[in-house]
Specification:
The protein is of the alpha/beta class and 210 residues long. It has one domain: Rossmann fold. It is built from seven helices and seven strands. It binds S-adenosylmethionine. S-adenosylmethionine binds next to helix 4 and strand 2.
């Protein structure tokens, strides 16, 4: 691995602590600040390879875990992993079969970037919208979503789409994100659910402003 990476303190820490990627600290940071995952939650991780978020999730919940990625993921005890594209109906069906009840969806997925800014931003937004729509079919009312995005064109429209589905939505930067990056995370809590669903609505929680 090149010198840029070996100089990175967060990367060095992740190697020392046995995480598969430095992004482990992003999820740890987000969960410490926003209490996304409770001890019994069942969690789906979209774009999970190489698996550091799954490693973190194992420490946060005793519930069921399922990760999906285009790339293979080295096995993790007690975790179901599915190789495939989570935007396709076939893979979505496999996830539903593995996870009949889902409290939290986390999504750290990002497409391969071409370097062409406008094209890349459009692909990121499209992937975010697919992840949001899929999460909305999985989550129980009151559930939570954490989704990586990048600030740019169409970002505000994306946030509005999330706000239409969750009672509490914030856009945050993780302390583990590299300086200068436009990467951010949309932290959405308390899924409104399907308006036609006659299950009792969750209580609307007032969230403190950061
Ligand atoms: C930054 S990595 C995720 C790192 C992971 N959170 C971890 O901590 O190990 C982004 C991943 O998203 C995956 N990805 C992108 N688009 C996807 C899609 N449509 N379906 C499944 N995985 C996808 C990529 O293959 C890549 O492995």
């Amino acid at each position: 691995m090149g010198s840029q990476w070996t100089r990175d303190a967060v990367y060095r820490k992740s190697v020392k602590e046995g995480f598969r990627a430095r992004s482990a600290y992003k999820l740890l940071d987000i969960n410490t600040r926003f209490n996304i995952i409770r001890r019994t939650d069942n969690v789906v991780d979209l774009g999970c390879a190489p698996g550091s978020w799954l490693q973190v999730l194992k420490t946060l919940t005793d519930g069921k875990l399922c990760g999906v990625d285009l790339n293979p993921v080295a096995p993790l005890e007690g975790v179901v992993t599915i190789m495939g594209d989570f935007t396709t109906p076939e893979v979505q069906e496999q996830v539903r079969a593995a996870m009949p009840s889902v409290n939290v969806v986390v999504c750290d997925a990002s497409p391969h970037l071409s370097g062409a800014k406008a094209y890349d931003q459009a692909r990121i937004t499209a992937l975010n919208e697919d992840a949001l729509n899929f999460a909305a079919t999985l989550l129980k009312q009151g559930g939570n979503l954490v989704m990586k995005s990048f600030q740019g064109t169409d970002f505000n429209e994306l946030v509005d789409l999330v706000k239409a589905r969750f009672y509490s939505v914030r856009v945050i930067r993780s302390s583990a994100t590299r300086r200068g990056s436009t990467e951010c995370y949309i932290v959405a809590k308390n899924f409104i659910g399907d308006a036609r669903d006659d299950r009792i609505k969750p209580e609307r929680k007032e969230e403190e402003e950061e």
